[in-house]
Structures are given as C-alpha cells and as structure tokens.
Amino acid sequence: MNQRNEGQRALWRGKDILSVKQFDRQDLEFVMGVARQMREVVERVGTWELLRGRVLANLFYEPSTRTSSSFMAAMQRLGGTVIPISSVQYSSVSKGESLPDTIRTLEAYSDVIVLRHPEVGAAALAAKYASNPIINAGDGVGEHPTQALLDLTTISEELGQVDGLKIALVGDLKYGRTVHSLARLLSLYNVELHYVSPTSLKMPQSVVEEVAKTGTPQHEHEDLEAVLEQVNVLYVTRVQKERFDDMALYERIQGSYVITPQTMARARQDMILMHPLPRVGEISMEVDADPRAAYFRQMRYGLFVRMALLSLVLGRQ
Length: 317
Ligand code: ASP
What we know:
The protein is of the alpha/beta class.
C-alpha cells in the first residue's frame, strides 16, 4: 500500500459518517477503491476475518430492509458481530428513553453504531454523545450518506466514469433523502443534473443552492419526456408516503412517473436505470429483465461500500 493510501486510512479511523458534505473527491475515489477490494474478497472467498471481535450496534427507529441487512451482512462477512435493534417498540425507547441515553448504552457494548432515525440531525446529535463512530443510515428527510456512496459507486462501476454524465433524479425530490445526498455528491463531479418532479415535490432550495456553489448545471422539469432520451442515468424514487399529512395529496401524486418497457424504449441504449428501493409502482416489473435496469446490482454495491466503510472507521485494513 502506498503512503497516500496509508494517510487516507488514518484519516478515516474513528470517524463519524453523518453527511456527504464531509467528503471531497479524493475521499470518494478512496472509498470506491476499498469497496472494489471488498467486492473481490466477497466474490473470491465470501468472508474475511478483518473485523473479528468487533461489534456493530444497528439501531433503526424507521423501517429498513436493505440498509439494515446490508450493514449486518457487511459486518458478518468481515468476521464481526451485530446487535440488531430494529424493533425499537420492544426496546427501552418505548419506555421513553432519550436518544443520547440509548446511544450511551449501545456504545458501552459495541465499537460502531449505525443509526436510522426520523429526525433530521439525529445522527449528528448521537455523535455528540458517542466517542465511537456513528454512521448515519438516514435521518428523516435529511441525508442518507451511505446510500449516496453506493449510488455513486454504481454509476462509476456501471458506466466507467462519473464526469461528463447527464443524470436525472426523478420523483419525490422534496422528501427523498437519498436524492438530497446524491445531488450533493454528484456536484463534486463534472455532471449535468436534471430534477424531474411534480411542483409540490421539488428539490429543496437549500440543496439547489449548495449544488449551485460548485457551478454544476441544474435543470428542473415536470415532464420526464423533456430529458428521457438524453440522460445517461435515470434515478427514480418513491413518493415518501410516511412524510405526508394529507393522504389525498399523496394519492394524487403517487404514480406521477411510472417507468415501463415503453419508457425504456425511448431511453439511450447505454443508460442505466437506478432506484434506491423499495419501489412501489414507479418501475414496472417488466423492466427488470432490461440489462439497463441496474437497481438490483445497485443494492449489491451497497454491501461492498458498507464493508469498506465499516473497515475504515474501525481502522482495520
Ligand atoms: N430506502 C431509501 C431510504 O431509506 C429510499 C426510500 O425509502 O424510498 O431513504
């Protein structure tokens, strides 16, 4: 390993992963490189005892399938063990225990905590009370940094580069935390961003302003047709039902964009279709067999990226 990589690794040890704002391009290239090594390990031998004896506390206050199970699989494939707390209704949280106290408790038993919570800033708050690394696995409508890292990895691995691409983020851009993190990360590259959403679900101004500072071109559309034939990446999201007070409004908006084989017929032959999942009707199942449908492969990249992140913050190589 060269000295630059040694230096990078030292920087990651003990670090919290709270927001994509903490990364520069060099960090991203480094994480993607470690994720590539993890992929090789998994594909060649399946597991590696790198984190043997280390314990991950996986604390989920909101539903999750992929994020929670991929962090568990990542820890286990690296020889570590997991305290899974995904049914907070059966933990002391239901007795009214505060987040800081729950974090202090889990910190006493583990080496790293992965936290998903409905409030923006919850991971940052947890990090104040913990001396071990906290990894933000989604803080309400705020951020989902590890998802953005795996999304970026997917784009880079599937298309061979990120610079020069036209990328459309489609659907619920207001409440979708994955697109908030991904737009910020992509703005570190030389890309063109297209935001496709109903007017009531537009990308928050705060994100647009941050991205604008990097000089990244951003365009807003209501109609997918405006960009469908041009883009290299179509990143579709679900309307975030759980963030709506008005269910009638949700019902009206849900189903605004549905990707079907007919949609795909008009898209570029070399594009990829992504989705953070779960999908609830935004991509018809008939599209799954299309080689451009990358959403299941995307999920798999999540395992390698999370293996990379756990090994880095735990300071093991
Ligand atoms: N699984 C992603 C998230 O937790 C996307 C979604 O739920 O729509 O943000």
